[in-house]
From TrEMBL:
PANTHER family on file: ARCHAEAL-TYPE GLUTAMATE SYNTHASE [NADPH] (PTHR43819)
Transmembrane parts of this sequence: 12-29
Family as reported in the entry's similarity comment: Belongs to the glutamate synthase family.
Pfam families the record matches: Glu_synthase
Species assigned in the record: Streptomyces tremellae
Domain Glutamate synthase stretches: 137-452
Name the UniProt record assigns to this protein: FMN-binding glutamate synthase family protein
CDD domains for this protein: GltS_FMN
Keyword 4Fe-4S found: no
InterPro entries given in the database record: Aldolase_TIM, GltB, Glu_synthdom, YerD
Keywords: Membrane, Transmembrane, Transmembrane helix
Length: 509
């Protein structure tokens, strides 16, 4: 305007401004980069820095650690797989293979061909009438409420396209979980959201009605999660809009507190009975629970209750202390809960030792982001894996760690429609599908190099750990692996006290 009104010389200033305006418009309209949709023009600085990262890192930053839960190398693999741009890397490993704690999988002198179709895990014990074929990697529990509607839609769309399952998280079953048609594990927590009586109890009628939905393939009772075992969530009133209130069966605008413990059971036996009731109410669908294990004695008490009652869950998801959350006190995230390795070994061994392992499948969650992560967890006793944060990366998360503030810069964990709009559902759906497919393909390729064509052939000696600068030990040597039924026959010395004290009618401390 100044160029027209005052002097043509102003055109020199106008040209760059017009270019910036055009770039901004382009950024707002494109669908690929959520950061640019929310931060037009300015967001390019992030991509510029990212492009010169390897060089900068070499000089200024300690390799592969940036003080955030997932290191940069892992994030890069996940982003590239999700975008479909994964390429092979030159020059060799960037890990310190002589560091104490370094773990590696053991290759075979006779590698096998990679199976053409990924195996599925049959979930459903003898009491289940509608078993489900679970994929090797699935979307871990994350609620609508902690995630935006667009994020839930993209995750479920990816699950539908790729033939895997999405866990709803404990925030209820929403239309965003149902619309794309992906398989669901419907999770309920201590708040019983979505099947809740007015005073916060469990409503069996509502549960049965929703569990009957075709997309719901399994139902799950959340006992605890690794990032905050033993505390219930708090959803601030400001986030409880009409839609969330409806999905969760809670009053709009009022803060919702999930209690730390369940009302539906207070002893191991009652837990086992309640799981059987959930299965019955769901019409025989696979029923399980999610736990970040703590006391081995308490878990053994639950196994004793299963034996006594003659019924068992169809699956148990073990969440590691390293697990993620939308919001938790840092002390809890950092200091409470058994890490996934020990948690898996406890649950696997307890089920093997009590002869229950054949009827109970074990899922694992805790920083599973690559094929190698998945294979390690399968060696440690899991049958399948779930990923939460890696899937968040696929829908655009940049690990800004603002999930609890409603100001997520990429629209993943916010209920602010302006921010959530940045997440383009179609583009991110495809990324979720690609990430799952490439991660499972990576795991299968690794297993083939280990001489294994089916996860059931994996053995503890195939995973090794450097325990000091001079020693490497296999999982076979490092940990105890119980024989089937051993706890029933003659418990080994270091299990005997816990086994004896485990009481199916009391959670002893
Ligand atoms: C944003 C967010 C929300 C979550 N919400 C739930 C939930 O509702 N229920 C649950 O059982 N776990 C929840 N989790 C935990 C994850 O399901 C998962 O167990 C944990 O993050 C470990 O997996 P990861 O390391 O792949 O993230 C949540 C995690 C995140 C990051």
């Amino acid at each position: 305007m100044l160029a027209a009104a005052a002097s043509p010389w102003w055109s020199f200033g106008a040209a760059p401004l017009l270019l910036v305006a055009a770039l901004g418009l382009w950024d707002l309209l494109q669908r690929r980069h959520t950061v640019l949709r929310n931060y037009p023009v300015l967001g390019h600085a992030r991509y510029l820095l990212e492009s010169i990262r390897p060089e900068m890192q070499q000089y200024f930053v300690e390799r592969s650690y940036d003080g955030r839960p997932f290191d940069r190398d892992t994030r890069s693999i996940v982003y590239e797989r999700a975008k479909g741009t994964a390429a092979e890397e030159p020059f060799g490993t960037e890990r310190d293979v002589y560091a104490t704690g370094y773990e590696f999988l053991v290759p075979s002198m006779a590698p096998r061909p990679v199976p053409e179709t990924p195996p599925r895990v049959r979930v459903g014990g003898p009491d289940c009438t509608r078993p489900y074929g679970m994929a090797l990697l699935n979307v871990s529990a994350m609620s609508f409420g902690s995630l935006s509607a667009n994020a839930v839609l993209a995750l479920n769309g990816g699950a539908a396209a790729g033939g895997f399952a999405q866990d709803t998280g404990e925030g209820g079953l929403s239309e965003y979980h149902l619309r794309p048609g992906g398989d669901l594990v419907w999770e309920i927590g201590t708040g019983y959201f979505g099947c809740r009586t007015r005073d916060g109890g469990f409503d069996p009628g509502e549960f049965a009605g929703k569990a009957a939905h075709d997309s719901v393939k399994c139902v799950s009772l959340k006992l605890s999660q690794g990032a905050k075992p033993g505390i219930g969530g708090v959803l601030p009133g400001s986030k409880v809009n009409a839609e969330i209130a409806r999905v969760r069966d809670v009053p709009e605008g009022r803060t919702v507190v999930s209690p730390p413990y369940h009302r539906v059971f207070s002893t191991p036996r009652e837990l086992v009975r309640f799981l059987a009731r959930m299965r019955e109410l769901s019409g025989g669908k696979p029923t399980g629970f999610k736990i970040c294990p703590g006391s081995r004695r308490q878990f053994l008490a639950v196994c004793k209750a299963m034996l006594d009652e003659g019924t068992a869950p169809d699956f148990i998801v073990v969440d590691g202390g390293e697990g993620g959350t939308g919001a938790a006190p840092l002390e809890f995230a950092d200091h409470l809960g058994t890490p996934l390795t020990e948690g898996l070994l406890t649950v696997h061994n307890a089920l093997v030792g009590t002869g229950l392992r054949d009827r109970v499948r074990i899922g694992a969650s805790g920083k599973i982001a690559t094929g190698a992560d998945l294979v390690k967890r399968l060696v440690q006793g899991a049958d399948y894996g779930n990923a939460a944060r890696a899937m968040m990366f696929a829908v655009g998360c940049i690990q800004a760690q603002r999930c609890h503030t409603n100001t997520c810069p990429t629209g993943v964990t916010t209920q602010d429609p302006r921010r959530a709009r940045a997440l383009h559902v179609g583009d991110k759906t495809e990324r979720v599908r690609r990430l799952q497919e490439a991660t499972v393909a990576g795991a299968l390729q690794i297993m083939a190099s280990m001489g294994v064509t089916d996860p059931a052939q994996l053995r503890p000696h195939m995973l090794r750990r450097r325990t000091d600068p001079y020693t490497v030990r296999s999982y076979d040597e490092l940990y105890e692996w119980l024989e089937p039924g051993r706890l029933l026959d003659e418990p080994p010395a270091d299990w005997a006290a816990d086994w004896k004290a485990a009481d199916p009618d009391r959670f002893t401390v």
